Amino acid sequence: MGRASATLLAIALVLAASAARAGDTVNGRAFTEIGAYQDSVAVSVLTPSVGATVESPTAGWGANALYLVDMVSAASPDIVATASKRWSEVRHAGNVGAKYKPGTFGVSVAGNASYTPDYLALGASGRVTQELDEKNLTLTAGYGYGHDTIGRTGTPWSVFSNELDYHSFVGGLSRVVNNALVLSGQGEVIVERGDQSKPYRFVPMFAPSVAPTIAPGASVDQVANARISARPLEQLPLARERYALTLRMALRLAASTIRLDQRGYVDSWEQRATTTDFRWMFDAGRRVIWWPRLRLHAQNGASFWQRAYAATSARDLPALRTGDRELSPLVNATAGGGVRLALGAPGDLDGWVLTATGEGTHTWFLDTIYVKDRWSALVTVGLEVGF
Amino acid sequence: MRLAVRRHALALLAAAALISTTAGCRHVRPYDRGKLAHPTMTGVGEPGPSAEHVYAVHEGAVGGSATAESGCGCN
To answer: Is B56's Cβ below 8 Å from some Cβ in A?
Structure first.
């Protein structure tokens, strides 16, 4: 991971440095954020992050970097069901990027890496942008490649690991409709190849006559008493194609801005989803912006999703099986808001910016064992400084 | 078969979006872009890294989260 990250960082710096010229105006910003997440199924996450951007608006170049740590602690029913102790993990992740757009045509590259003792993800992407019609129309196209290595904590990658490759193709456009309205759309196709089954995720099996009687939300004890002894690991299909289309609207009113995003999604596992994200941001003087936020996500289950899988023995298992609740039918409703305070000196109000957000989500799991719903809360505080 | 139908539907939806965003637009000159350059039109309020990760974990769908630049003429 270190060599790949260093290479990407070097590419970003070389691109930025080669684009820089003496006398260019250079703006820099550094930022940090800490996020705290807690939910009702005993999962908590603390996520500090730091990052920086530098760019020259006159020369058109820019570079950015971000590093974050996820500290996860979990004792969800899935973990209790395997008689395991509370589980903790630290994830390190980062990304770097560079862009160069001296005129109406621009190019950008980015790289990302994420590491836990049992999961390594590396990715790189590139994107080109063309502005047309005096910047009233912007077209974008891009490609990304990623490679994940999925292992087990304490077991060398060489002894056990699954590999997952993914290719992402992106196309988008953004249209200035009038002097207060921008509409944009982006389509993305992601092709995944490899085994992304979780090597810790055991799936309970039930006798064919018992499986239909397992009710949604059946407790750990109920499942333990009803299941057969065979409890295989998850097995997912080895290929997946995902298709997403997002339409966005940004409308500036007299002293507020409405932003609305709508995403439609389908994939080759026959999962379909819709996600709507709404923010209405209000100016409260020159230093304060605040906003309420609503997000609604609904999806059906993957084609092979079953609340209770039927099997007669370990020699008669369903070929595809999972306990991943995010592959089940569910509805997420999120409500919250945020505030942005510009704390800089007069004449440079954005020299220091403090941003805080808070939101709560309720998830209805429509066809799962162990839990029928989940409450979660996320609070973030960020500080940004210009240099 | 059903997936092929969905792919065509997605392509049609994209084409409809393209047409709808180019029809009925007013050409906005560079000097008339004050509202478009407001911070709330260009990134303020976007989910940070923590929120992005939570959505990725909570939702089975991925993709389409980034967008084309607004063309607001800010630089």
So the answer is: no
What are the pLDDT digits (tens) for A294-339? 999 999 999 999 999 999 999 999 999 999 999 999 999 999 999 9
Burial (CB count <10 Å: 0-12, 13-18, 19+), residue A18? exposed
Joined tokens for residue A178: 């009038």
Task: Find chain B residues with C-beta within 8 A of A66's C-beta.
Answer: 49
Residue B67 contacts residue A194 (beta carbons within 8 Å): no
Q: Which chain A residues touch B7 with a CB distance below 8 Å?
A: 243
Q: How far is CA A151 from CA A82, A115, A119, A148, A158, in A?
A: 19, 11, 6, 10, 9
SS3 content of chain B, % helix, strand, coil (to 5): 50, 0, 50
CB A207 within 8 A of CB A228: yes
User: What ipTM was estimated for this complex?
Assistant: 0.87
* From B7, B24, B45, residue closest to A243, measured CB to CB: B7
A316: CB partners within 8 A, 6+ apart: none
> Whole-angstrom distance between the N-terminal and C-terminal Cα of chain A?
30
The pTM score is 0.88
Are B28 and A247 an interchain contact pair (Cβ–Cβ within 8 Å)? no
Detail the DSSP E strand segments found in chain A: 27-39, 43-56, 61-74, 87-100, 105-116, 119-132, 137-150, 162-178, 181-194, 205-206, 239-252, 256-267, 272-284, 288-299, 309-310, 330-342, 352-365, 373-386
Q: Which two tokens stand for residue A180?
A: 């207060």
Where are the extended beta strands (E) located within A42-118?
Answer: 43-56, 61-74, 87-100, 105-116
User: Are A182 and B62 an interchain contact pair (Cβ–Cβ within 8 Å)?
Assistant: no
Q: Which positions in chain B touch A295 (Cβ < 8 Å)?
A: 55
Would you state the structure tokens that stand for residue A33, as one six-digit string? 């954020």
CA closest to A60 among chain B residues: B75
Q: Could you tell me which residues come within 8 angstroms of residue A320 by beta carbon, excluding any fewer than 6 positions away?
A: A235, A236, A237, A304
Question: Based on C-alpha coordinates, what's the Rg of chain B?
Answer: 17
